[in-house]
Every structure is written in C-alpha cells, then in structure tokens.
Amino acid sequence: MKSDREGASLRADRVGIVVSAACFVHCILTPVVLSLSAVSAHYLPSEERVHRILAVCVAAIGGFAILTGYRKHRRSRVLLLMSSGLLLIFGGAYWGDRLPSHAIEVIVTMMGSCLMISAHLINHTFCKNCDCGNDRP
After folding, report:
1. Per-residue model confidence (pLDDT) at position 135
2. Among 55, 48, 62, CA closest to 118
3. How far apart (Å, rounded) are the C-alpha atoms in residues 59 and 51?
4. Which of 23, 27, 53, 134 is deepest in the core (most CB within 10 A)?
C-alpha cells in the first residue's frame, strides 16, 4: 500500500513536470503562432480561458504530487517553491490584465512555471532518495 502511494507520487511528479512545461511552452509559442497568422486568432480559444485552465491543471496535479511527496520527505523548500510558483501562475492567469503590459504577464507566468518545474524535480529527487526510517526536519 505504501509503495503504491510512493509510485503514484513519483508518477504525479512526472505528469506535473509535463503540465508545467506545457504551460511554459504555451507562453513561448502563443505569441509566435499569433504573429505568424492573424487569422489563426479566430480559431484559438480565449487566451484567458486557456491560462485559467492550465493554472487549475498545474495546481491540481502539482498539489497532489508535491503534497504526497512532502508527507514522505518533509522538505519544506518544495512547498515554498510550489506556493511561489502557483501564486505567480494564478496571478498571471487571473490578474494579468492589471499588470503594466502583456510582456510582464508572460514573464510572471513563465517564472511561476519554472518554479513549479523546479518544485517537481526537487520533490521527485527527495522522494527517490528518501530514507523513510529517518525523520528529517
């Protein structure tokens, strides 16, 4: 039973890395795609909707993976990275129109994605290297 949870946590970290990376790639590719074809903007879903859906997916998968891993390794820096990353991602997704420019919104969101990717990578490493017999602060 315990190894099933550990395996699920490691798999969730991998999925979390992919979703956070997809968010990052979206931030890079969307302006390129839109600049190549103004007509394509009519066929893409609302940018706000895409950002909010990605933010919720990143939070759900990240929360599951990182909190499950945290219960095992108890390293609080992973929670700090996750919280900071989610704050920036949700800030860009829900309040990006209040930022001074679209470029700043993209930078804020990309920084959040990088923090989430880092949190997943560190969490994954801690979970793989954790000696559950030793309590770590």
Report:
1. 47
2. 62
3. 12
4. 23
Stated pTM of the model: 0.67
Would you list the DSSP string of 33-83?
Answer: HHHH-GGGGGTSPPHHHHHHHHHHHHHHHHHHHHHHHHHHH--HHHHHHHH
How many residues are given for the chain? 137
- Taking the alpha carbons of 86, 88, 89, 92 in that order, is the dihedral positive or negative? positive
The residue ranking higher by pLDDT, 72 or 90, is: 90
CA-based nearest residue to 10, from 60, 68, 49:
68
Return the half-sphere exposure (C-beta side, CA atoms, 13 A cut-off) of residue 41: 9
Predicted pLDDT of residue 133 = 47
Which residues lie closer than 8 Å to 128 by C-beta, 6 or more apart?
Answer: 10
Cα 73 from Cα 131, distance rounded (Å): 8
